[in-house]
């Protein structure tokens, strides 16, 4: 009887090679948790730039920001660009809702529209740099302006790469109402990019 028990134990052990499965202490999906931790780290990066911005506003005479040397920021153009980026969040939400309801056309149209709106935003931002009339090294205000908007532009570029991959996969039929985590995680990142731009626009262009 004892021999049979030992034999059964060995047979059971033979099915469990390698290390035991990892213990998941959190109910949050690993991909989602990773994205949330990444976003927290990026908020800290933006926070460092905003700290420099407010320091310059405090120490400069009369708290001068812009205009400087006859150059001002294109507030109206940036406002239109803000509307474009916020619209991309709406179309992304449309796409996410569509795939959950198995509306494949709505999903594909929403993802493609979101990608094109994000690309338009980035194009307008680059065109603004080309015609703004000052360079990053001209003065501290210019350095902070290009630093903050450029940092955000880099995040938009990363987001467009992610959205582009999701859009391509959408047209290949890789998502379904049951399996769409690959849409939600890049979507969280894109919404973060949109929210950060509202903060950047309000702080840099409006205040």
**CATH top level class name:** Mainly Alpha
Shape: elongated
Q: What percent of residues adopt helix (DSSP H or I)?
A: over 70%
Distance separating the two termini? 83 Å
Low-confidence stretches: 1-14
Task: Please give a structural write-up.
- It is a single chain.
- 74% of the residues lie in helices and 0% in strands.
- With 207 residues, the protein is mostly helical.
- It is elongated and about 60 Å long.
- The termini are far apart.
- Its EC number is 7.1.1.9.
- Keywords: Cell membrane, Membrane, Transmembrane, Transmembrane helix.
- The chain crosses the membrane at residues 32-56, 76-95, 107-124, 144-168.
- This is cytochrome-c oxidase.
Offer a quick outline of the entry.
The chain is mainly α. 74% of the residues lie in helices and 0% in strands.
Outline the secondary-structure elements.
Elements: H1 2-13, H2 30-59, H3 75-100, H4 104-131, H5 140-171, H6 181-206
Helix pairs in contact: 2-5, 2-6, 3-4, 3-6, 4-5, 5-6
Enzyme class: translocase
Keywords: Cell membrane, Membrane, Transmembrane, Transmembrane helix
Catalytic activity: 4 Fe(II)-[cytochrome c] + O2 + 8 H(+)(in) = 4 Fe(III)-[cytochrome c] + 2 H2O + 4 H(+)(out)
Task: Please give a handful of descriptors for the protein shown.
cytochrome-c oxidase activity, 207 residues, disordered N terminus, EC 7.1.1.9, mainly alpha, Four Helix Bundle (Hemerythrin (Met), subunit A)
